[in-house]
Write a structure and sequence with these properties.
Elements: E1 30-34, H1 39-48, E2 54-58, H2 68-81, E3 88-92, H3 101-112, E4 118-121, H4 127-143, E5 151-156, H5 159-163, H6 165-169, E6 175-180, H7 182-188, E7 204-206, E8 220-222, H8 227-238, E9 243-246, H9 255-268, E10 272-275, H10 279-287, H11 292-305, E11 312-314, E12 317-319, H12 321-340, H13 342-348
Parallel strand pairs: 1-2, 1-10, 2-3, 3-4, 4-5, 5-6, 6-9, 9-10
Antiparallel strand pairs: 7-8, 11-12
Helix pairs in contact: 2-3, 3-4, 9-10, 11-12, 12-13
The structure holds glyoxylic acid (GLV) and magnesium ion.
Magnesium ion is lined by residues 61, 122, 155, 157, 181, 183-184.
């Protein structure tokens, strides 16, 4: 569709808003999922809004088939009735091959299209899926006089999607980010697991036996099932100017393992993760905000390195242009978060 780079940023329908050249950099530490078919949510939501960076009305998996329309209507009601201030409003619609996709898009854009920041599209297999939604959104934005283009976020949760991740990331100027969907991806890859994300004690490496004592116990180290996919996703997003996210962690009671999974994603370059239970909001906030001591160390590097050239020793560690750049990433992330989080701003001494 967009084979000519000169036309990449042209609107796809007459009257549609101009596509964004840059995806807004704002804190997105947690994408908090709620079920808009749950009537109690309608009252609860206004208290949740100020506690999260992103609020997402989920219409896809976890919403029963006979509740799909109720969920869609619930989201329209909630979006119309609330002021979201600087909390982003996203939705996860049903997949392209479902009977709900078309009406999800048409009814949401024609009613709350000016409030929706991002549409998350599940089970994305390749660039064609994104471009189909891109074209449809342009039509609907033009028809409904929407001034701000709605962005698209893809879930990476099929084997073919992983094979195409770079071309998905660059498929449209609407692309805002990608989330790893470990549950669907496990099924699509025919992995022999029954979990939603996280590690597995069976996926490990083991030391050789001690020849002088073959019966002695051998040390094992659990490996990370998601390392390869997160790494590919992070690179695909960074070459495309969009944002990578870890998705759901299903064992709600295991807050420590959730924190580990989130932190691995943070260290590898993800900007946030999904919270599928209120207890995970706090975990994501803690993990995806740079640690204050790292921010203070990063500031020290920047202060000592001047223009970034040359070499310096700080606290016994070698610094050069590359660590200067890492420090800039840390400081920029902290600055974004400090604007939203006054307590952290103090700790960061920004
Ligand atoms: C999320 O949608 C997943 O399948 O993990
Ligand atoms: Mg899924």
């Amino acid at each position: 569709m967009h084979s000519n780079p000169k036309t990449f940023y042209e609107p796809l329908a007459i009257g549609a808003p101009l596509p964004l050249k840059e995806i807004p950099a704002v804190p997105m530490r947690m994408i908090h999922f709620f079920d808009p078919s749950n009537a109690r949510m309608i009252d609860k939501i206004k208290d949740i809004i100020p506690t999260v960076d992103v609020l997402l009305g989920n219409l896809e998996d976890a919403v029963a088939s006979n509740n799909k329309i109720i969920a869609r209507e619930g989201l329209i009601k909630i979006a119309s009735a609330n002021d979201f201030q600087d909390t982003m409003l996203w939705t996860r619609i049903n997949s392209l091959d479902s009977p709900w996709f078309l009406d999800d898009v048409i009814s949401l854009v024609s009613t709350i299209g000016d409030k929706l920041d991002v549409i998350m599209l599940p089970k994305v297999n390749g660039p064609r899926d994104i471009q189909f939604l891109d074209q449809l959104l342009a039509q609907l934005e033009a028809k409904n006089n929407i001034k701000k283009p709605i962005m698209i976020h893809a879930i990476l949760e099929t084997a073919i999607g992983v094979a195409n991740v770079e071309s998905i990331a660059t498929s449209s100027p609407r692309m805002q980010g990608i989330s790893l969907g470990p549950a669907d991806l496990a099924a699509s890859r025919r992995m022999k697991t029954t979990r939603v994300g996280g590690g597995h004690p069976g996926y490990l490496v083991r030391n050789d036996p001690d020849k002088s004592n073959p019966e002695s116990s051998r040390q094992i180290a659990q490996q990370d099932l998601w390392h390869y996919t997160i790494a590919r996703m992070v690179d695909a997003c960074n070459i495309s100017g969009i944002y990578p996210f870890y998705g759901p962690f299903g064992d709600i009671g295991d807050q420590l393992a959730c924190e580990d999974q989130f932190r691995n994603a943070f260290l590898m370059g993800c900007v946030g993760a999904w919270s599928i239970h209120p207890s995970q909001i706090t975990i994501a906030k803690r993990v995806f905000s740079p640690p204050p001591e790292e921010v203070i160390f990063a500031k020290k590097i920047i202060n000592e390195m001047g223009d970034g050239s040359g070499v310096a020793m700080i606290d016994g560690k070698m610094q050069d242009d590359a660590t200067f750049k890492q420090a800039q990433v840390m400081i920029r992330t902290a600055e974004l978060i400090a604007k939203r989080d006054k307590d952290l701003a103090k700790l960061y001494k920004l």
